[in-house]
Amino acid sequence: MKQLRIYTAIIFAMIFWSFSFIWFKMANENYLPLTIIFLRLLFAVIILTIYLAIRREFVTIRKEDRKLFLILSVFEPFLYFIGESNGLAYVTSTTGSVVISTIPAVVALAAWILFGEKLKLINYAGIIMSFAGIVIFVVDRNGALTFNIKGLLLLGLAVCSAAGYNLTLSRLAGSYSPVFIVNVQNIIGVILFFPLFLITDWNFFHTAHSFHSLLPVLELGLFASCGAFILFIYSVKQIGVSRVNPFTNTIPVFTAIFSFIFLNNTLTARNIAGMVVVIAGIFLTQINGKRKKTDEALILTGKTA
């Protein structure tokens, strides 16, 4: 029965993160990307602060770590969400999830280049395969892009920001709980995004809002930024990172299925082939490479905010 609860929690976490790309597309019909980001983060901060207060997991941030938390928050959620949310305004939810799913491969590449972390040959092959899969996914048989280049570049910013976030996070993960780290970065994110929100969408305060229009934003905050995060942490604590992390590779698959059902998105055989190659490549990057000890917080890059 316990195993059933654990794997049910994992599956629901993956479903919630998959839906985040769909909820954004729905929210974008009524709100600007920066407005969605600000409201999502604000709602997530309220929920996670209550969660931490109930569990009494608030701690004092050491003086030497304050600068790291600021750098962390600039990478994610600030730059990450600027890239992801604006990028999703130009591409389908499925395309967005596939590009974002390359984050583990980019992090492995960055750790190798910057810190000389050696990987096995199969891990390098996985990195190359992941990027090859993206090319297959977004390029047609004539070599022309089938998706908006601006959207792909913005999503690329999100992926690179997530890599920077991950490398910075490695210096904090051993001292603070994952939920606490995410809540602090989201609080700083709310502060960073607030001026941009006021500048770009002052009309928000002079427009009538319905529950229907706000619902996708609330779903992003409640399910994607909080529910999925807590379920994932629960699963990691029960069976470990190595057994849970491979499930994150199902996110593009779930997104494609739900996008077909709820957004009427279509996939060509070439798109499906590209998706399979990306996911296979990501699996290869995770096979017993010689990496530093991994904390569960590191695995949440690109999913938590």
Secondary structure layout plus pairing:
Blueprint: H1 2-27, H2 33-55, H3 66-88, H4 93-100, H5 103-115, H6 121-138, H7 149-169, H8 178-200, H9 211-239, H10 241-244, H11 251-262, H12 269-285, H13 296-299
Q: Any overview of this molecule?
A:
This protein has 305 residues and is mostly helical. The protein has one domain. The protein has helices at residues 2-27, 33-55, 66-88, 93-100, 103-115, 121-138, 149-169, 178-200, 211-239, 241-244, 251-262, 269-285, 296-299. The radius of gyration is 19 Å and the shape is globular. Mean pLDDT is 85; it is low at 290-294.
**Category by helix and strand content:** mainly alpha
Relative strand content: under 5%
What is the H/E order?
A: HHHHHHHHHHHHH
Helix content percent band: over 70%
How many individual domains? 1
- Shape annotation: globular
Number of helices: 13
Number of strands: 0
Distance between the termini: 31 Å
**In terms of quaternary structure, what is this?**
single chain
If you compute it from the alpha carbons, what radius of gyration comes out, rounded to the nearest whole angstrom? 19 Å
- Which stretches are low in confidence, meaning pLDDT under 50 for 5 or more residues running? 290-294
What is the typical, i.e. mean, pLDDT?
Answer: 85
Biggest sheet overview = none
